[in-house]
Design a protein that fits this description.
Oligomer: homodimer
Number of helices of chain A: 7
Strand content of chain A: 25-35%
CATH class of the largest domain in chain A: Alpha Beta
Radius of gyration of chain A: 20 Å
Shape of chain A: elongated
Structural class of chain A: alpha/beta
Number of domains of chain A: 2
CATH architecture of the largest domain in chain A: 3-Layer(aba) Sandwich
CATH superfamily of the largest domain in chain A: SPOUT methyltransferase, trefoil knot domain
Helix content of chain A: 25-40%
CATH topology of the largest domain in chain A: Alpha/beta knot
């Protein structure tokens, strides 16, 4: 066929399929026509997390509404790793960074968690969701990680699903080396969560409660002090390499 | 003893030892007295990459020069992993990020490499060095990674030391999964390098040349597109977990 690769790639909430007409969000329309300067007939890549990736063309529209016409599926939908990341919210820049990088690294669900020493009290979930969409658009993922409503650590643990292992980054040095812990906790299919504490660490009581839970495995990531967002990336990278889809 | 942990931690080029007087750089003196607002008698943690970590106190000095007196060694020097990262320079923010995060993750040597598709033509090595020092101060490392002078890819490969494996991130999908490649290339002591290409990828000729070298192992990090700096962190995390000091 020899089509050039579309220069823009956007996430669509609705269905994608042969001949379907798609109306992107207003901000996306603005992006296509004003930022990317695309015009009628130009190609755009679309994905919705269910129907694979589609090549569409700009079918029309004016200043405020663009219509896209789906043409052909360019990639089928595929199963993606099932790995959650629960994290104590950080300041704006490191949180944005965490969302962007963990999306690239294939996280399936992001859960902001309030712990005793969490410095931030408010989380703008819609902002995080928009950021996850943007990151997914740019890294060619076929899905967008879900960003859950923030919960307290207590509630996260009380409602943790049966059968899902929770790897807790334990910076006190008490955890098993992460590679060994992953090897021991490999399930088929792998179904894990990773919990990263705040910059101030977990409180003594929190760590004590975590260690008593059967589904929790405390893990360590070496002798240096990692920032929370670095620890999140490191743990997720090891997970993908050892039990996820980098194998 | 019950000393409070010093609130400031700085890298010193000179020797550290019992009773030694140390004069920090002028910018460091400014940081201690004006930013951290420390005064005579206040404690500062010092390290130089050779003599472990020392508790020192501000012994005197005025507006423009501070003197520190070494008191006791708080941590002995320890051997650190021997892992190099060669990377095609990125824009300012992702390069800063790469330096900061790979320092936390324990890289021993950072080498800026110019490839065919490297977008940046100039590298401010002194800036990168200052950034590596700052990151090492903050992550409690006992050393600062060396930042080498930039080289071309050709020269990097021509001068690559015998006995050191080079893991090349191959985004064309031709490489072995990183965990498998690390298991196969584990040496004692581990002595590796990791090479990350530019955003535009390696050229066809570069990849061809790399694949022909006996010390090169092309590796892959899964089906999603990672930004260059994310790939660097992911590869280094896997290295530490599987053959470095996270075991």
């Amino acid at each position: 066929m020899g089509y050039a690769k579309p220069s823009a790639r956007i996430f669509i909430a609705g269905d994608l399929g042969p001949g379907l007409a798609v109306t992107p969000e207003r901000a996306q329309g603005h992006y296509l026509t004003h930022v990317m300067r695309l015009a009628e007939g130009d190609a755009v890549a679309l994905f919705n997390g269910r129907d694979g990736e589609w090549r569409a063309v700009i079918a029309g529209g004016g200043r405020h509404a663009v219509t896209l016409a789906c043409e052909t599926q360019t990639r089928p939908q595929r199963a993606e790793p099932d790995v959650w990341l629960a994290f104590a919210p950080l300041k704006k820049t490191p949180t944005d960074f965490l969302i962007e990088k963990t999306t690239e690294l294939g996280v399936s669900r992001l859960i902001p968690v309030f712990t005793r020493h969490t410095a931030t009290e408010r989380v703008k979930v819609e902002r995080l969701r928009a950021h996850a969409i943007e990151a997914a658009e740019q890294c060619e993922r076929l899905s967008v990680p879900e960003v859950a409503e923030p919960v307290t650590l207590e509630r996260l643990l009380a409602e943790w699903p049966a059968g899902r292992t929770l790897l807790v980054l334990d910076e006190t040095g008490g955890g098993a080396p992460i590679a060994a812990a992953l090897a021991e906790n490999a399930t088929t299919p792998p179904c894990h969560g990773i919990l990263i504490g705040p910059e101030g660490g977990f409180s003594f009581n929190e760590l004590d409660a975590l260690r008593k839970l059967a589904f929790v495995t405390p893990v360590g990531v070496g002798p240096r002090i990692l920032r929370a967002e670095t620890a999140a990336l490191a743990a997720l990278s090891c997970w993908q390499a050892l039990v996820g889809d980098w194998r």
